[in-house]
Write a structure and sequence with these properties.
Length: 698
């Protein structure tokens, strides 16, 4: 299994390894200038914005908190519901499935269908990461336009598809005076674009580019909708840029006194400066990589500097993109000389993007809040999104797989970020890149692991091995298995996300014995009333910490697991009241089977577990052992998710028999208990000291 760490410790993100198969499954790349099919997904994925919560499973819906506030009847109802859901009536290890319902946090959302496995809802200090995405570039641009102009706009900028991006690179400043940037097909207006134009109340459209970029058929569609049309175009990209500049001169749009200069050979640098161009009404001048400015551009620049329209120049990109001869030429146009020319550049377009973002905050009135992340492999999402960023005075960062320099820079400035945005779906900004963003903005230590399997293959393996039982209907169906296995149901920061916590890092140093005891005391009364027993877990907080030190397994996981498996120390197996081994305690159900729970008592006797402390430490050692055990075995089952869904065994052996528990929602119960304890003590996910490992299916 190959792991992708995304914890942020410095401005430069450490280079990591991701298998080619995983990368190809998560990213969609188009060559520069590639044509885009009208209806096919291109710069966006088929992911919708993560707004609507998916429905909870039957077991989730049966869940209710079993604290001292619950009545005996409520606890019994919850236990009964869980027994029906899991198909394991009875006591001891079987009744632990009931504890899942009696202890699980109520109404835990199941995640977001079809989206990233990490849709953030509860990031510390972060109200959310908004996604602007549609099935195609057209819908994504519409989403961005509606957010930028919620009250409508009289004018819109219309750009073309495919390699027509080059004509639109200078359009951001124009949009700053007029309205959103939307996309046309080559010779017609896409239905989504047309509907947006109507909804926004657009009366005038400015087409950027000649008829090869946006055909007359598209212009006729606009006129037919009662929208006036102005076309700004030249013989090539430099000519179109110059026509945009002249239009701005005529309408007195250029008010900042500075011009931004970028290469026309690639879009990354121009896109990154576009929000500032929009906000400051500063024109973008494009240069030809070989020849620099053409004669018409030089004449326009010289006139603008002479009459005071322009006074300064900001070059974006290194000398390979915009040569030093261009900088010398621009310096000669201003009375301030070289002091009037500034260059913003990095080793790559991603580093240049981050440099522009930092500069915009330092010197142009921008702020890190509402920072947006978008792919540097395709221009469309960034081009339309630059308008939204310009309106909010927020930077735009280019990011891609293993190209997350900008993510690290944003992470260092996370104190000023309460909201952030992603432009494009998961084909544009992949799940692992989104995970890097979440980690950077929340300060969480988060990694991803290639499972080596597709989700379909994992579901097939689980279905073939009959490893999971639904007590109401027998074995789970493939669709039910998919629901439980699919990581996309787990919301970042939610209770269920704790099943990705790495458990073999030993004592966290976060929770004290008193805090563990307080949590036990809070939840034990409900179990004690239900089982008519005094919990054997009361007062064992230090034993769990000692066990964590000795076994190398997290203390709260051990406690949560013990609560789940032993009905909080109240079941006969944990009370030591089994006839076959009176006085011997088993908190983890080790050795107990549905058909023979007494075997667990016999095992406890064979290990000498005649006190709670011995049972806790012995159980922890058993869980931590390698080979035939869990956590540190040959399959590296060091998360709750991996303990239940052994994808590493599936990838290596084509089978998945080595798994813990038969109930598909078994990890949910422990996750919820861990979350409850942290929440009870006011400890956020970022302060737990935990690392998180999230599976990525191909």
């Amino acid at each position: 299994m190959k792991r992708i760490p995304v914890s942020i410790s410095s401005a430069r993100i450490p280079r990591t390894v991701l298998s080619c198969a995983l990368a190809s499954s998560l990213a969609l790349a188009l060559p520069a200038g590639a044509a885009v099919a009208d209806e096919a997904p291109d710069s966006t994925a088929t992911q919708a914005a993560p707004d609507a919560p998916a429905g909870a499973s039957d077991a989730d819906e049966a869940a209710a908190s079993a604290t001292s506030t619950l009545s005996d009847a409520q606890i019994k109802d919850a236990v009964s519901s869980a027994e029906q859901a899991t198909g394991v009536p009875g006591e001891d290890i079987q009744s632990s499935e009931a504890v899942d319902a009696a202890q699980a946090a109520a109404d835990e959302p199941a995640g977001r269908e079809g989206g990233s496995s990490l849709a953030p809802q509860e990031l510390k200090g972060l109200s959310g990461l908004s996604t602007f995405a549609g099935d195609t570039m057209y819908e994504t641009a519409v989403a961005e336009a509606r957010a930028a102009y919620p009250n409508g706009s009289n004018t819109a900028i219309i750009a073309g598809p495919g390699d027509a991006w080059v004509d639109a690179l200078a359009a951001a400043a124009l949009a700053g005076s007029h309205g959103p940037i939307l996309f046309a097909r080559e010779n017609s207006i896409h239905p989504a674009t047309m509907q947006a134009l109507k909804d926004l109340g657009v009366r005038e459209a400015i087409i950027v580019g000649g008829t090869a970029a946006v055909g007359e058929g598209a212009a006729d569609d606009l006129r037919g909708a009662g929208i006036g049309v102005t076309r700004l175009a030249g013989q090539n990209a430099l000519g179109t840029q110059l026509d945009i500049f002249k239009y701005g001169l005529k309408h007195k749009l250029w008010t900042s006194g500075e011009a931004y200069v970028a290469t026309s050979a690639w879009y990354g640098d121009a896109l990154s400066i576009s929000p500032v161009s929009y906000a400051k009404r500063a024109p973008i001048f494009l240069v030809n990589g070989l020849n620099g400015f053409n004669a018409e551009q030089r004449a326009a620049l010289e006139a603008a500097f002479a009459d005071g329209t322009l006074r300064r120049s900001v070059i974006v990109g290194g000398t390979a993109a915009v040569g030093e001869d261009i900088a010398d030429y621009l310096a000669g146009l201003s009375p301030e000389g070289r002091a009037s020319v500034e260059r913003l550049a990095g080793a790559t377009q991603y580093e240049t993007s981050a440099e522009i973002a930092g500069w915009s905050v330092r010197s142009r009135g921008f702020a890190w809040n509402n920072v947006a992340f978008t792919t540097g492999r395709m221009p469309y999402d960034a081009l339309a999104g630059s308008v939204l960023q310009g309106k909010f005075l927020a930077p735009l960062l280019l990011v891609d797989e293993r190209k997350t320099y900008g993510v690290g820079v944003a992470g260092m400035n996370r104190a000023g970020i309460t909201s952030a945005r992603v432009f494009g779906g998961t084909a544009a900004v992949t799940p692992s890149t989104r995970g890097a963003i979440f980690a950077a903005l929340s300060g969480t230590n988060l990694s991803f692991e290639d499972t080596g399997l597709t989700l379909d293959r994992m579901v097939d393996l689980e279905d073939a091995n009959d490893n999971s039982i639904d007590g109401k209907n027998g074995y789970y169906s493939p669709d039910q298995l998919r629901h439980f296995i699919d990581p996309s149901r787990f919301t970042y920061g939610s209770a269920l996300f704790y099943q990705f916590a790495v458990l073999n890092k030993g004592y966290s140093g976060v929770l004290t014995a008193d805090q563990l005891n307080e949590f036990i005391d809070q939840i034990a009364p409900g179990y004690e009333r239900n089982w008519k027993a005094h919990s054997k877990l009361r007062g064992t907080g230090q034993a769990f910490i000692d066990a964590a030190h000795e076994s190398g397994v997290n203390e709260l996981y051990l406690l949560a697991h013990a609560i789940l498996e032993s009905a909080c120390g109240c079941s006969p197996l944990s009370q030591g009241t089994r006839d076959v081994a009176p006085g011997y305690l088993n908190f983890f159900g080790i050795g107990a089977y549905d058909s023979n729970p007494d075997n667990g008592a016999s095992y406890a006797k064979s290990q000498g577990w005649d006190t709670p402390e011995k049972a806790i430490k012995g159980g922890a050692r058993w869980i931590a052992q390698g080979r035939s055990r869990f956590i540190n075995n040959e399959w590296n089952q060091n998360t709750l998710y991996k303990m239940k869904w052994n994808y590493e065994q599936g990838a290596r052996q084509g089978t998945v028999w080595k798994q813990y528990a038969t109930a598909a929602h078994w990890p949910d119960g422990i996750s919820n208990l861990m979350a409850q304890c942290y929440q009870h003590h006011g400890i956020t996910l970022e302060r737990t000291g935990l690392e998180f490992l999230v599976p990525q299916y191909r």
